[in-house]
Amino acid sequence: MNSGWLESTILRTASFLAPGARRAAWLEEWRAELWYVPRDRAARFCLGAFRDALWVRQSDSCPESPLESPASCLAFLAVIAVVSLVLAASLLTPLRLRTALWRLSPRDLPAGCMAMLVYTGVFLPVTRMVMGQAATHGCPAPWRSKLRRMLFMAAKVALIQPVMLCGLFLMILVGPVLPFAPCAIPAAWILAFRWLIADQRQRCPVCLRRLTDPIRLGAPSRTFLDWYGADSMCLRGHGLLHAPEISTSYSGSRQWVRLDASWSVLFSETAGARHP
Amino acid sequence: MADGPSLSHASAMILQAIQNGHIYGYTVMEVTGLPSGTIYPALRRLEREQLIRSQGERESVAHAEQRPPRKYYKLTRSGEAALEASRRRYPLIAQLASKQEVRDT
Q1: Which of A40, A85, A189, B32 is the most exposed place for a label (fewest CB within 10 A)?
Q2: Interface test mutation site (partner B, options A15, A28, A29, max chain B beta carbons within 10 A)
């Protein structure tokens, strides 16, 4: 048996080279193999894990979407927010030249982002109402999960503010040239809010990863009073999301079905074998 | 699917080791003398090319013996055919693996 800290550290470090969706299964496989390696050869054995992890990454034909995990989604939005802030800062000079009302400096950009929250406070609830009810849960989610979901949503909303501010500056700049710009920018904001809400609803309430592998069930042209729609699943095995394609009296909204720990064996295989 | 002549020497050695009953990654590594950084990616590639197939050990068996469950490998029919073809190309492979087996016993 072998469980030295050096070997564990090597394997843990190498695992970051493996694709995120297969990382846990990959690490488990190497740890299992390490158990059988004599102690004096263990560190050398573990060094091979780097090459294997790289091979797994290179052979992974379908890389993980930047929006799949909550951390990568926030990182992606953070990059867009930084780019938007840089662009907004560069638009300040032409704005000053175009209109005397705009005497903003780069220091005012955070305050500008805060001002955008006013628009968000108006548009986001309206968009949410228009998009209908969120998924219903068979049993109430624990408060920690609810809190994580709320914090994740709040972070996404915060990171989208610089993008909105940048859009506002563009609207003011190109508005006199392009007459449709004053309508296009608010429309883009609404689309952004729609994406925020749809993305939130398409995530597992437990781990906040995006639900994947939607499977369509039923045939709309053949069924009468029968359920049809699509099922998406959480690759970590936390549950399934039933999304009906028409709302009926018995199945009006999306429904989250929590799976207990007895399903975890199936899903650990699925997470590992997702990308052929 | 890879055919016999395109099989590398290392791949042929791995297939031979599996056929000789060294069905776990580490035992294949021991019997072939190849490093772990070669063996494990090679096993994955051979599995992708459907020359071998892997299966997880039953958890109940492993837990009863107080050890983690391992992945083991078996040759597929294509793998057997590819190994047969590669034996003509690398005639010493069968001999090398069998010598190692004798040393193990």
Answers
A1: A40
A2: A29
